[in-house]
Amino acid sequence: MIYIYDILLNFNNDFYEFYEWEKGDSIYHVKRIPIFKVDTKLIEEILTKKIKIDDPIVTTMLNKTEIFESKKIKTLKYAALLTDSYRVIGILLDDNFKVSKVSDLLLDEALDAIEISERGVLKEITYNIIGSKKENNFLTRNEIRIKKCILTEIKNAYKEKDNLKLEYLYFEFFDKISSNIDEIYEKLMNSLSNEISEKHIKLYGLIRLANGKNKLSNLTN
């Protein structure tokens, strides 16, 4: 078995490029982890589908990954790196051999992993597709955050019949005035089915500013 040593992994339900990692993430300092050379299709489907590995390879992963934790060495039950010689991802399996979490690698560590993997042979791994992942897998973390914030604000305003807020959000986004609340709601919601734009970013900033002022007002009253 081929291993790579002393790398960082950031396992999450969704795949985040290394430059999207944040301070609050649980970063694993990996002492060692096995690496397997696989075809591109498997990596692509792991990133876009819910996958269950149905292959003897999982038995070779068992407790082979070691991480540093509080000055001790801990093992991860089923973990590995997969590479197609162009990109590398980390995978974490649950006890049913489903891919539960994925991780990118830092650029220099990914290049090292690809180089090390060339010592091995291509593994034909058998797997089953058991579902699809959320559509927002292709959004950045910040775009997901922006979309969720705006969506929550629109839904809450509509539910609470805060027509003034909905009219304000509509004006700021579309630069138009309307008092048709159902139409305002529908158009604002439909705007979130498109890519996140500069208008969404501006609206997100205004919502955060307004919510911040409300919190400050509540603290001082």
Description:
Strands 1, 2, 4, 5, 6, 7 and 8 form a 7-stranded mixed sheet that branches. The chain has a two-stranded antiparallel sheet with strand order 3-9. The mean pLDDT is 89. The protein folds into 2 domains: 3-133, no CATH class; 141-220, no CATH class. It is elongated, with a radius of gyration of 22 Å. The longest helix has 23 residues, at 198-220. It has 7 helices and 9 strands, in the order E-E-H-E-H-E-E-E-E-E-H-E-H-H-H-H. With 221 residues, the chain is of the alpha+beta class.
State Rg: 22 Å
Tally of helical runs: 7
Strand elements, count = 9
| Average pLDDT score | 89
Q: Can you give the helix content as a percent range?
A: 40-55%
User: How would a crystallographer describe the biggest sheet?
Assistant: 7 strands, mixed
Amount of beta strand: 15-25%
What would the principal axes of the Cα set say about the shape?
elongated
The H-and-E topology, N to C, reads as EEHEHEEEEEHEHHHH
Structurally, how many domains make up the residues? 2
Q: Quickly give the structural class.
A: alpha+beta
Span from first to last CA?
64 Å
Low-confidence regions = none
Question: Short description, anyone?
Answer:
The protein is an alpha+beta fold. It has helices at 40-48, 57-61, 107-117, 141-159, 163-174, 181-191, 198-220, and strands spanning 3-9, 28-37, 49-53, 65-69, 72-76, 79-83, 88-93, 99-103, 127-132.
Write the layout of secondary structure elements.
Elements: E1 3-9, E2 28-37, H1 40-48, E3 49-53, H2 57-61, E4 65-69, E5 72-76, E6 79-83, E7 88-93, E8 99-103, H3 107-117, E9 127-132, H4 141-159, H5 163-174, H6 181-191, H7 198-220
Parallel strand pairs: 2-6
Antiparallel strand pairs: 1-2, 2-4, 3-9, 4-5, 6-7, 7-8
Helix pairs in contact: 4-6, 4-7, 5-6
